[in-house]
Amino acid sequence: MALSAAVTSSSSSTAISARTFSSDLKAPQLGSFRVPNQPVTFSQRWSSVKAVNAQPKRSDSIVPLAATIVAPEEVEKVEVEDYEQLAKELGSASPLEIMDKALEKFGNDIAIAFSGAEDVALIEYAHLTGRPYRVFSLDTGRLNPETYQFFDTVEKHYGIHIEYMFPDSVEVQALVRSKGLFSFYEDGHQECCRVRKVRPLRRALKGLRAWITGQRKDQSPGTRSEVPVVQVDPVFEGLDGGAGSLVKWNPVANVEGVDVWNFLRAMNVPVNSLHSQGYISIGCEPCTRSVLPGQHEREGRWWWEDAKAKECGLHKGNLKQEEGQANGNGNGDANPNGTATADIFTSQNLVTLSRPGIENLARLENRQEPWIVVLYAPWCQFCQAMEASYDELANKLAGSGVKVGKFRADGEQKEYAQKELQLGSFPTILFFPKHSSRPIKYPSEKRDVDSLMAFINALR
Predict the structure, then answer these.
(1) From residue 360, how far is each of 63, 357, 366, 421, 432 by CA, in Å?
(2) How far out from the chain centre does Cα 317 lie?
(3) Which of 193, 287, 312, 383 is the catalytic position?
(4) CA-based angle 450:456:460, to the nearest 5?
(5) Which regions in the chain score pLDDT beneath 70?
(6) pTM surpassing 0.70?
(7) Using CA atoms, how far apart are residues 139 and 118, in angstroms rounded to an integer?
(8) Is residue 284 among the annotated active site residues?
(9) Residue 179 confidence (pLDDT)
(10) Where are the beta strands (DSSP E) in 161-239?
(11) Is 312 a catalytic residue?
(12) What are the beta bridge partners of residue 7?
């Protein structure tokens, strides 16, 4: 039965507007369906459909129609935003301009991810736009007391309510009961972060079409250097589901940390009190510590791991994959491009240990001399960075009664080194005492000569 665009009532036809029904109509019936006595608003898509009569007029210029012809529906074309191009256009824009653009485009479907650190600058920028905005945060259950106090301060300062996301209690309980409260010190932080941060974030983003982060290119060596100001999120999904359903905005991507802090001071923005205690990058309490002057801010996070592993998984899609970075902790098995890599640590006062050599050294319980040995991979940029200081150490210790060695622990030797030599990341430095079979692992990331000498003198 064809449905006409006009409804016949008695002997007159009452036109139904393409936008709303008239409130004066007496709710005429269409078959067994009744049209209510109230305005009904059509969607934009349906308002663009051309009305087609059930009995179309004949035209003398064409062959008489044998059946009713229905004009095709005009489907509204949705333009897909080219975010790569938009990122280029906003490449030199200020954080305030980028924030304003993000809030304008997405309205209530976008929110700021707030960690309780210097990313409070994002909230200040959003406040300055004069537009409404939303803020959410991940409460892992293991934040510093100062961070919780800071959340309260920010809410009162801006008159907002932060939308907190919590980890699944059953998953947390299972993790802690099976592996303890501090398993991340032994086998890496990724599992704990996945339960306490990544999965809650995934749930939060499923209710949004875009999110705003405080990522900066200068935050983490080698991993965030290519962060764009806006992008289609390569990892997480948004409200509509599927790849490409979430947009990620990084308004301060091109801003250096010192300029963020200048902005916070100039605008008298409240900050986390941990910053005044030497903390720069702030996360969970067990995995965050203060840093010394001159140290990179990420050295205060997961300090027992390789610098390339210092990501919790929230920004996995922005991590730049470097040579040899073939797994989660930044340790590959070989130079991935297949080219030969020149060996490093070439001082004549350095002993190159083979697999049998390091095995014999590890088995000895009464050594004639103590040893310090670096487990390395020649393609690793952190090993390359300490080459000069380690060679200098070898020259300095020549004839002192302490042997200096190196053992290449990538490739086929990696599994053995991880199991028997405490290899967690490259480089790993071990001290083999004179009267003990178990080597002692150097705990610091400071690999200058003086720091290494202090470690040796404390143990020799």
Answers:
(1) 99, 5, 12, 12, 12
(2) 7
(3) 383
(4) 145
(5) 1-80, 220-225, 292-298, 302-340
(6) no
(7) 17
(8) no
(9) 85
(10) 163-165, 210-212, 230-232
(11) no
(12) 14
